[in-house]
Amino acid sequence: MKTFRPLFRLKKYFIRYKRDIFWGIILVIFSNVLYSILPKILQYTIDQMENGIPIEKIVLFAALFVTVTVIHSGLRFFMRQKLIGMARKIEYQLRNDYFHHLQQMSLNFFTKHRTGDLMALATNDIPSVSMTIGRGLMFLLSNIIVFIVVLTLMMRTNLALTLISLIPFSLAFLVVLKSMKFFIRTFERIQSQFADLSSKAQENISGVRVIKAYVQEENEIESFRQLNRKYLHENLKLALARGVVWSSMDVLFGLSFVILIWLGGLAVIRDQITLGEFVAFTVWLGMLSWPVISFGWIINLVQRASASMTRINRVMDIEPEIQDTESCDQSICHISGHIQFINVAVAYEDLMVLENISFEIAIGKTLAIIGPTGSGKTSLIRLIPRLIDAKAGQILIDGHDIRSIPLQVLRRHIGFVPQETFLFSETIAENISFGENDAKFEEIGRVARLSTIHEDLLTFPDQYQTLIGERGVNLSGGQKQRAAISRALLRQPNILILDDALSAVDTYTEEKILNSLRVQNPNQTKIIISHRISSVKHADLILFLKNGAVVERGNHRTLMAEKGLYAELYQQQRLEQALDEL
Ligand code: DUT
Ligand code: MG
User: Which domain holds residue 450?
Assistant: First the structure.
């Protein structure tokens, strides 16, 4: 029972579809009782024939047989409709709930879980659960009913014959029980190898550029082949075991029939049973073989579903790390963009990446963050839309603790351009208007002009309607970045955050974009991360980060006067530029 516990979580779905289940069960009972009594009609017919039956009566029996069969098939049809339909509806709900859950997860969750594994849950585990609750339930109930009814009918006909001919059946049942453990274990291995295989394929397809650039195709093919070979090996093992079990069952069932024909035949000759009863007996015995064979299959199915459900539950039980808490003040429905950090620290697991960060930036001002790679710039700005939470210290926006602002409100007022741009496989216009579905075309055009991508788009065959391949393969790096900036600008955010979002754009274009950003919305607080001094020098406050700490702060003028790291970097970049211009 313990193994099936994960499936108890499906209770709420079962309750939702209780009507379907109720009718399904009623149909299962009726259709299988009818099925089990069919041989009884056969028995009467044969017995009557022996006694010299008039032809009309034979026709009557035949008609009865056909009618019962037709009704049975009809009931089966509706039973399948109800139970498999119910399973499909549960699968639909489960998949929606799973997707909804994934959408709530914070960044950290996605770094901890492989995309391939998360996909495998949706493509493998959820259907496995649905299959079990549909077919598994249907066959299990059918088998139980057939077993009870057929066995009762057989025993009532001849108890001794029933018991003797069932001896090999019990052996077959034992074979099923014994082999089950092996099947389940092998199957679990197959499932986890399948997850590895899909993760490998998934990473390969997303990472195809790197693989090609490093000429790693052969290596990748080889390591994929190895994983695939393991998968094949386990599958073959399973197929072999299945073959052995099936064949031995065939032998045992054959043995049952030998016993029945031998002892049953003798009983007929000795007039202990009628010929009709003998025939009915034979058919019943055949009917019993399916429940025995499929018992193992059903248990296997339920175990698999249970293992799948465990995996699903494991992910579904993860609480979103970042969500609205009780301290959230629902009356806050707007933020203006006054940001204050007080002794903020950030850590990923045990790795401290930022410590003692304090600064304040007024509405409409520009904050710039500069510093060597890995110094914690991205981590710092991730705190503002609460993609991550601070380990220590306090962040205030418009004087409210950031955790008291409803996440929806906070994020709606922030335009965030991440360091790695991601574009969807949709048109450029749709990519820009992401999250703002009713954006007017003029608005899209306005932000595209601001981020200077408008001119580029005009050269494309479909202009704003140009379709972008997965991850925007048909745009250049700089074009992708500017499309992402347009997307952030369209929301007219009160806080605009650019994380190195102009790194792939030349200095001239960068200057142009930054200039137009400066004038377009004087009340917008801007945070700009860059490696180039040229893009930060107009900022009201510049923070120089190094090893997770602010080592210099001020504006361009005061920092230059300090003659520290900032000034040094400025000289270096000036020199590089001069050399470039030579
Ligand atoms: N780090 C993690 N987990 C993450 C992100 C970053 O452990 O999910 C670590 C790596 C690095 C430090 O945090 O040592 C700071 O990373 P961040 O991305 O904040 O650095 P950056 O200043 O933005 O670097 P770059 O200029 O390369 O973008
Ligand atoms: Mg970064």
Answer: 339-581
> pLDDT at position 158, please?
86
How far is it, in rounded angstroms, from Cα 106 to Cα 322? 6
Cα 512 from Cα 503, distance rounded (Å): 14
What whole-number distance in Å separates Cα of residue 547 and Cα of residue 352?
10
Same domain, 410 and 285: no
The answer to whether residue 27 is domain-embedded is yes
CA distance 381 to 352: 16
The H-assigned helical ranges of 105-216 are 107-112, 115-120, 126-131, 137-157, 159-165, 167-206, 208-213
Q: What is the pTM of this model?
A: 0.76
Cβ neighbour number for residue 75 with a 10 Å cutoff: 20
| Tokens 């965030």 belong to residue | 416
Atom of ligand 1 nearest to the CA of 111: 8
Cα(369) to ligand 2 centroid in Å equals 10
User: What local confidence, expressed as pLDDT, does residue 427 receive?
Assistant: 83
Q: What is the pLDDT of residues 150-201, one digit of tens each?
A: 999 999 988 888 888 888 888 888 888 888 788 878 877 887 888 888 888 8
Instruction: Determine the Cα–Cα distance for residues 405 and 310; give it in Å rounded to an integer.
Output: 35
What are the angstrom distances between the C-alpha of 245 and each of 140, 189, 405?
A: 20, 20, 62
Cβ(535) to ligand 1 under 6 A?
A: no
Are 362 and 303 in a shared domain?
A: no
Closest ligand 1 atom, CA of 545?
22
**CATH number of 435's domain:** 3.40.50.300
Contact of 260 with 162, CB cutoff 8 Å: no
SS3 content of the chain, % helix, strand, coil (to 5): 65, 10, 20
Q: Measuring CA to CA, which residue among 106, 43, 33 is closest to residue 68?
A: 33
* Atom from ligand 1 closest to the CA of residue 346: 13
**Which tops the pLDDT comparison, 116 or 39?**
39
Q: What is the pLDDT of residues 38-49, one digit of tens each?
A: 898 888 888 888
| Contact of 535 with 366, CB cutoff 8 Å | no
Nearest CA, atom 3, ligand 1: 348
- Helix 275-316 vs helix 137-157: crossing angle, to nearest 10: 160
Q: In terms of domains, do 411 and 524 share one?
A: yes
CA distance 86 to 24: 9
DSSP element (H, E) containing 514: helix 507-520
Does the C-beta of 375 come closer than 6 Å to ligand 1?
yes
Distances (CA, A) of 3 to 14, 179, 295, 305, 313: 19, 17, 17, 10, 14
